[in-house]
Write a structure and sequence with these properties.
Layout lengths: L4 E5 L4 H13 L3 E7 L5 H5 L4 E3 L2 H5 L6 E4 L6 H10 L3 E5 L6 H13 L4 E4 L6 H12 L5 E9 L9 H4 L8 H4 L1 H12 L4 E7 L10 E7 L5 E7 L9 E5 L2 E5 L5 H6 L18 E6 L5 E6 L7 H13 L7 H12 L1
Parallel strand pairs: 1-2, 1-4, 2-3, 4-5, 5-6, 7-10
Antiparallel strand pairs: 7-11, 8-9, 9-10, 11-12, 12-13, 13-14
Helix pairs in contact: 4-5, 5-12, 9-12
Amino acid sequence: MSKPIVTGILSYGMSGRLFHAPFIETNTHFKLKAIVERHEKKAQKKYPNVLSYNTTDQLINDDEIELIIVNTPGNTHFDYAKQALLKGKHVLIEKPITPTLEQARILFDLGRAVDRKVMVYQNRRWDSGFISFKEVIESGKLGELIEVHLRFDRYKAAIGPKKFKETKSIPASGTLFDLGPHLIDNAIALFGKPLSADKVTATHRQNSEVVDYFHIRLGYPNQLQVFLTASLLSAEPLAAFVAIGSLGTFIKNRSDVQEDQLNADMLPTDPAYGIEPEGSEGKLVTIGPDNERTVEWIPLVKGNYHHLFDAVYHTIRLNALFPVAEEHIIWQMELLEK
């Protein structure tokens, strides 16, 4: 068995605390060595054997660390990932990979030049709802697909405290760059590169200076239309996953429990982790040969972000292809910049 990958995390904000540290700490393929904490040393209280560095430079210059998780604000991703690659580290970068397509290309090219892996953290591929949605689409039960909707609805009327998300002059700010990568990646994971695309963005919250609503239409072969929508003013979220085909329709709400469970300090190794509550099933309605209508409630599927980290391990140690391919990220950035 290959030795664990010595890993460092550049920030212990929400993403470091929920989406990275618990998985690195509980996955035997990794050894969590250090986390950057500029102010309160919260990580060290929870992980007493982990070093708490005061600066990103200290972590990036740690010779033992092989993998650096770049989970700082989006406008800093390019600089930190570039520094890490030049120090011989592999990088796992939060979405969006960078504020611009040009910067993304530079990082991938640099990764090849220094023989290090550049991977992007698109965890929503391992949400329970998306897994169920993908399975129904691939089952063929819907017939020829006509229309697909992927949504991310929230209600956050107040301007948030994170300036890097709410300030127009800061690159990669706003909902398009926050939630857009999730929805675009879901579409690409399902259908690949679109043949055409149109995008509408808007700002509706009082005193907001960044995009807080977007709607993207993607055109695919056989006239399939895919619609991606996110809003910060949706008091009653609509179904997050809708697929309409010639033989049926599938509808499911967004109900993945992983974030809430992690926030409640449940470990990803807990048997209950990733299991949605009863009543979260997706509804599948199909029409048979004699026009009979059948309704099925699709069983719950366990979500698990551990699979993403297993993929990171296999990519670094076994040179396997990372499931979120470079071309997927390039297509994503093209759509974000369109």
